[in-house]
Amino acid sequence: MGTAVDAYLTGIFPRSEEFIAATRGFDRRRVTKREVDEALQRDVEGLVRLQLEAGLDCLSDGLLNWQDAFRPLVEAWGGLSLGGLKRWFDNNTFFRQPVISTSLEPGPISREYLQVDSLPAGNPRKAIFPGPYTFSDLVEDHHYSQPTEVIPSVARCLAYVCREMKALGYTHIQFSEPSLAVNPPSDDLLEVVRQAYEIVRGADGLQLSLHLFFSPTEPLLPDLLDFPVDAIGLDLYEEDLSGLKDVDFDKVLGCGCIDGRNSLLETPEEIVDLASRVLDALSPTGLILCPNTGLEFLPRSVAVEKVRSLGQARTRLEEVG
Q1: All domains of the chain, ordered by start, with CATH?
Q2: Which of 304, 311, 296 is nearest to 63 (CA)?
Q3: CA–CA separation, 297 vs 295, rounded Å?
Q4: Which residues partner with 176 through β-bridges?
Q5: Which of 292, 252, 10, 256 is nearest to 126 (CA)?
Q6: Looking at residue 263, what is its pLDDT?
Q7: What pLDDT score does 298 carry?
Q8: In Å, what is the CA distance from 1 to each residue of 239, 300, 313?
Q9: In CA terms, which of 18, 38, 170, 304 is 20 to 30 Å from 240?
Q10: Edge-to-edge order in the sheet of strand 78-87
Q11: How far apart are CA 136 and CA 35, in angstroms?
C-alpha cells in the first residue's frame, strides 16, 4: 500500500452514565462540584486508556464537559453571548446559538474545558474547534454587516486559540466545518474562507485539519484542497467515491470510516475495505482513520466498540502496507 496510516477521534465523545448523573445532580444541588470533577476525570482517563489501547496516534480529551462545540469560545471571546437553542443540523441534538453584539475579541479558553493534565505528555494531542465558516454560518450577528466581515474576525480569534493551544502542548488542531458541506458558500465567499485559514495558519508548528461532515463535498473539494491545511477529513457515509475519482488529493485524507450517527458496529474488515477503496480512488499523501463526525450521538458503550474496531483496522492496514 505504501501510504502512512494514522487514527484519531474527531469530536465530542459520549459521557458515561455516572458523569451524566453527577452533572444532573449538581444542577439540582444534590452533588458537589468536586464530585462532578471527579466523575469527569474518570471519564477522561478511561477515554485516554481506550485511545492508547486502540493505538490511536493523536489523543483527544473527548470534549466531555462541553455543552456544545461553541460554548467554550462564547465564554472566552468578547463580543459574544448565548442565544436560543438551535438544532445541530439534522441531528436530534441542540446548541446555544452564539450571538455577536460587538466586535469579536479573543480571550483565553477556560482550563475547565481543556483536560490537558490528563493527556500523556509524550503523545501528540489534539484540540477540536468549529471552523471560521461554520461559526459565521451558525452565529446570530447583530454587529457586522455581512459574512465577509464576520469570517475574518472569527479567524483572528481562532488564530489566538491556536497559539494558546500550542503553548499548552497541543500538536494538532481540527477545525470542524459541516456548514461548508451542508451550506456551501459562493465562489467569492469561499475565497474569503480560504483567506481566513491563512490567518489561522499563522500559528506555526501545528498540524491543521479541516473536517467536513453531514453532506457530500463535491464539487467543493478541489477548491478546498487549495486551503492551507495539512489534512482534509471527509464523511464517507455521505460521499460518492465515484464522483471524486478525478480529484488530485494532494493532502492527508481524514477517512471518516466510522459512522457516528449509526449504532451498527463496523467490523475491522469493513473499515479496511472502505479505506482501501478510498486509497485507490483518491491516492492521498497519507491516511487518517477516524469517525465521520463526533460520536456524541451514540451510547458510550457503542462508541467504545467503534473506537476499538478503528484501532484494529489501523493495525491491519499497517500490516498490509
Answers
A1: 5-320 (3.20.20.210)
A2: 296
A3: 5
A4: 130, 211
A5: 10
A6: 96
A7: 96
A8: 22, 33, 14
A9: 304
A10: 78-87, 94-105, 140-141
A11: 36
